[in-house]
């Protein structure tokens, strides 16, 4: 029974993602006046997360460069400083940490927002009017979460590298010139494509999970905190599982 519950749960999430993406492209082709809905979701999901993401990414960059610059030369692998720093920040820590921060904000806010709309009867009114809930409700939030996660992951990498350069500038781990040269000679196309795929997937998972649990809210206000907790837990678990399998898969190919 648990296997079938998980299967149908994942099926419903995939349906929300595919339907939301289809409705988004439909909006682009037919109703450009609805684009402000999508832009508002990007601003809501992205801007409010910048302060905490800035602090976390700056500290992560400082710690990564400090450890790599001090410990790797002791092992005699100075030439791997650049690839390791890029691998950790761009492929592993950056996208996943960004996903956790977006989960804490977006998944919970989506569940609360849609759940309150269910309790107040707004969703029932939309359905009675024959309007497409995905068109006006799910698609903008899915698109906003995806774009915000991608942009925030890029922002995370930039701020993390600035934190690493600050450490190198003061000479606490390695000369700043050596760090810049190591990063320039180590970066390749896969270091950009893999974080992009990860961020898109994380954003899709977070938006789909938050929307799903928001729609699962019943008539009781007590359902809102329960579904919000489930949305947070499910988002973290699914993002962690995807990160693990994707990193193993990408390490084999790249």
TrEMBL record:
<keyword id="KW-0472">Membrane</keyword>
<protein>
    <submittedName>
        <fullName>ABC transporter permease protein</fullName>
    </submittedName>
</protein>
<dbReference type="Pfam" id="PF02405">
    <property type="entry name" value="MlaE"/>
</dbReference>
<dbReference type="GO" id="GO:0043190">
    <property type="term" value="C:ATP-binding cassette (ABC) transporter complex"/>
</dbReference>
<dbReference type="GO" id="GO:0005548">
    <property type="term" value="F:phospholipid transporter activity"/>
</dbReference>
<feature type="transmembrane region" description="Helical">
    <location>
        <begin position="84"/>
        <end position="107"/>
    </location>
</feature>
<feature type="transmembrane region" description="Helical">
    <location>
        <begin position="42"/>
        <end position="64"/>
    </location>
</feature>
<feature type="transmembrane region" description="Helical">
    <location>
        <begin position="232"/>
        <end position="253"/>
    </location>
</feature>
<keyword id="KW-1133">Transmembrane helix</keyword>
<feature type="transmembrane region" description="Helical">
    <location>
        <begin position="154"/>
        <end position="180"/>
    </location>
</feature>
<feature type="transmembrane region" description="Helical">
    <location>
        <begin position="192"/>
        <end position="212"/>
    </location>
</feature>
<dbReference type="InterPro" id="IPR030802">
    <property type="entry name" value="Permease_MalE"/>
</dbReference>
<keyword id="KW-0812">Transmembrane</keyword>
<feature type="transmembrane region" description="Helical">
    <location>
        <begin position="6"/>
        <end position="30"/>
    </location>
</feature>
<feature type="transmembrane region" description="Helical">
    <location>
        <begin position="128"/>
        <end position="148"/>
    </location>
</feature>
């Amino acid at each position: 029974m648990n296997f079938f519950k998980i299967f149908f749960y994942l099926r419903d999430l995939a349906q929300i993602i595919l339907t939301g993406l289809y409705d988004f492209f439909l909006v682009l082709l037919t109703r450009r006046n609805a684009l402000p809905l999508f832009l508002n979701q990007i601003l809501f999901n992205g801007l409010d997360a910048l302060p905490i993401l800035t602090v976390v990414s700056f500290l992560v960059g400082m710690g990564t460069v400090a450890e790599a610059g001090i410990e790797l030369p002791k092992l005699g692998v100075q030439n791997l400083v650049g690839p390791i720093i890029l691998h950790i920040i761009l492929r592993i820590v950056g996208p996943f940490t960004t996903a956790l921060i977006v989960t804490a904000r977006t998944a919970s806010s989506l569940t609360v927002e849609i759940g309150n709309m269910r309790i107040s009867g707004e969703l029932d009114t939309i359905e009675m009017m024959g309007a497409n809930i995905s068109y006006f409700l799910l698609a903008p939030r899915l698109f906003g979460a995806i774009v915000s996660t991608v942009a925030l992951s890029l922002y995370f990498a930039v701020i993390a590298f600035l934190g690493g350069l600050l450490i190198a500038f003061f000479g606490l781990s390695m000369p700043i010139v050596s760090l810049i040269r190591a990063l320039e000679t180590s970066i390749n196309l896969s270091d950009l494509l893999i974080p992009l795929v990860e961020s898109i997937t994380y954003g899709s998972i977070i938006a789909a999970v938050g929307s799903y649990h928001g729609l699962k809210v019943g008539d009781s206000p007590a359902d809102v905190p329960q579904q919000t907790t489930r949305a947070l837990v499910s988002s973290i678990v699914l993002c962690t599982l995807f990160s693990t399998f994707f990193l193993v898969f990408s390490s084999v190919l790249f």
